[in-house]
C-alpha cells in the first residue's frame, strides 16, 4: 500500500500538495455568532486553508458528576464549563456560508453521532478529537459518510491507533489522516515528539499532520513541516486575555498570519529533493569553481611540470580543465605559448 493524496476539491492533503493549514477556532467564539464570523475573517486574512469549530453537547460528553478539571483552574465543574461553550446548531449554515464566501473550508470536530449527522451537510472533511479516538463506534459512524476524516492521536499508544485505523478501514473508507498531538494545554515544546510523524506515516501509510497545542506560534508548525507534516492545526484567538479555556494557549492574529507565512517559506526551503544546480547559484558556479591555470608563462614545446600549473578559481576567465586533470597534464608538452595565470585546457597540450 502506498501513500496517496486525500482530495478536497481543488486542494488536497498528502504527497505533492501544499501543507494544509487549519485555523482552529474551537470554542473561542465565547458564545457570540459575530465573534465566530470574525474569527473566520481573521483566518482568511492569515492565509489559512480551513477554519474549524467544535460541535459537542455537554450531556453527551461528560456525566454531570464528572467534577472539576484541575488544568482549567476553574472552580466550576467540567460539565458546566462545556455546557456554556456549546456551539448553537443554527450557527452551522451561517458559519459554513461565511467560510465559503472567504474561500475557506468549514470544519467542525464532532464528539457524538448526532453532531456528526448535523455537521455532515456543511463539511467536506470531518475531524475527530484525540479523546474520541478510541470511541470506535463514533469513528465508524463518521467514516461511513464517505468523506475524508482527520483523527488526532493525543495521549494514545501505537496499539490504540492501530485499532482505530483498522476500525476506520473496515468501513471501506480509505481517506484517513492522522495527527500527532500532545494532549496538554499548553503543551511544552519538548513533549511534541515530532519524529512520530514519520513513524505514523511509515506504519499506517496515510497522510500525517500536527495538531499543535504549544504556545509558541512558529516553532512546532515549521519543524513539523520539515519533518514531513501534510497538515497543521493551530488554535487561534483575538487575544490571550479573553475568558475561556482555549484562549491562553492560542496564537493571536499577527502570529497566525506569520505562522502561515513561515510554513510556506519552510515548504519552499525544503525544495524538490533533487540535487541540482539552482538558478541563483549559476553566477558563482562559474566564477568560484576551480580549474587548471598556468602558474607562469609557458612556451610552445615545453614539457609541463608541477611548477607550471596551479588550480585557481575562474573569476571572469572561462573554465580551464577541471582540477582532477592536473596530475594527468604533467609531462605533456605545450602546443602553443601560454600566458601566466590563464586557463589551461587539454587542447593546449599534447
Structural class: alpha/beta
Second CATH tier, the architecture of the largest domain:
Alpha-Beta Barrel
Please tell me the total number of domains. Answer: 2
Calculate the terminal CA-CA distance, rounded to whole Å: 59 Å
Low-confidence stretches: none
Tally of helical runs: 11
Task: Describe this entry's structure for a reader.
The chain is α/β, with parallel strands linked by helices. The chain folds into 2 domains: 16-270, TIM Barrel (Alpha-Beta Barrel), CATH 3.20.20; 279-348, Antifreeze-like/N-acetylneuraminic acid synthase C-terminal domain (Type Iii Antifreeze Protein Isoform Hplc 12, Alpha-Beta Complex). Helices cover 30% and strands 17% of the residues. It is built from 11 helices and 12 strands. The chain has helices at 33-46, 78-85, 91-101, 113-119, 136-143, 158-169, 196-204, 219-226, 253-270, 282-288, 326-329, and strands at 6-8, 11-13, 20-26, 50-55, 105-110, 126-128, 149-152, 176-181, 208-212, 231-235, 290-294, 309-313. The strands form 3 sheets. Strands 5-4-3-10-9-8-7-6 form an 8-stranded parallel sheet. Strands 1-2 form a two-stranded antiparallel sheet. It is elongated and about 100 Å long. The model has no long low-confidence stretch (mean pLDDT 97).
